[in-house]
Amino acid sequence: MKRALVNGAGGFIGGHLVKKLKKEGYWVRGVDINQHQFSTSEADEFLLLDLREEENCKKALSVDHGTFDEVYQLAADMGGLGFIHSAETQIMHNNILINTHMTHNAATFGVPRYFFSSSVCVYRDMQPGEPEMHEFEAIPAKPNNEYGWEKLYSELMAIAYSKKSDMKVRIARFQNCYGPEGEWHGGREKAPAAICRKIAEANDGGEIEVWGDGSAIRSYTYVADMIEGIYLLMHSDLEGPVNIGCPQYVSVNELVETVCEIAGKNVHTKSIDGPVGVHSRNFSNARIYSIGWKAKYSLKDGIAETYPWIKAQVEKNSAAGRK
Ligand code: NAD
């Protein structure tokens, strides 16, 4: 039986990845600084560890008789734009410690395959209408935020270790990912979850606040598609960073319209000041397409899965008298 370590198993994508690996027949150890917020982890073993500490990285990686066959590194201090643009020092400090200790020790322990979850935040800002950007164009680098700089450095570190050891490294640059069991309130939620929550809370015909003028262009990838991409990439021969994202690009206003359609509500948007991040995105998926991946969920299909889950969380919280 293959053994996998999932760091960040208490989080959104890590939680879904554990389920996938269990379905594929792996023995799975999940590690996180927190328990999963929304469900009981399906990992065979779940260790609560702070991976900023090197000793804890060693504990996470230690198994009887050899090493893990696969290590998936998804642990990170992260959140949506509101968090990324206010917690720069915390993000740089915490994530570089996690990745420095985990990458170094995975290589030292002789792990044969290592997955690193990077982000399209490594790229510079783009203007609407620009042609697709490819993975190699991230350098010369001009990420829009510190979170992106840390990801880029950690990518380079993982690649450097792969050259000095037998560890095969696979790196995905995720586009914005959404779905059930993701952060939906409290300040770390990303745009799709925040908009689902605001629309679930609004009356039909009511108003919701949106940061900026709603013209920023993004692609949103449904979590089931992302998990398939991670799994395929990990088992492929693709070296170097690989973009994974749904090819459907929409403005924030179009995201609002899609959620309204699924919710069966009409709402007006009120533009307020807030971090809006980059203007536009347009990334090549040619590398991930070359190994047979393609997003199966359109934005509407993914929101149809996500909105009911967030609406249920809103209702549960309000029944419990919480905001
Ligand atoms: P998440 O916040 O839900 O999961 C990250 C997990 O890491 C959390 O459960 C958190 O508790 C854990 N963690 C944080 N600090 C830790 C520490 N010191 N020790 C151990 N665990 C720690 O985020 P996610 O959306 O599941 O993202 C997973 C990975 O994918 C992250 O590396 C993230 O940067 C990357 N990513 C996500 C997106 C997205 O849209 N969700 C986009 C690009 C990249």
Automatic annotation (TrEMBL):
It comes from the Bacteria. Coiled coil: none annotated. Pfam families: Epimerase. Gene3D superfamilies: NAD(P)-binding Rossmann-like Domain, UDP-galactose 4-epimerase, domain 1. Residues 4-245 form the NAD-dependent epimerase/dehydratase domain. PANTHER family: DTDP-D-GLUCOSE 4,6-DEHYDRATASE-RELATED (PTHR43000). Belongs to the NAD(P)-dependent epimerase/dehydratase family. This is NAD-dependent dehydratase. It comes from Levilinea saccharolytica.
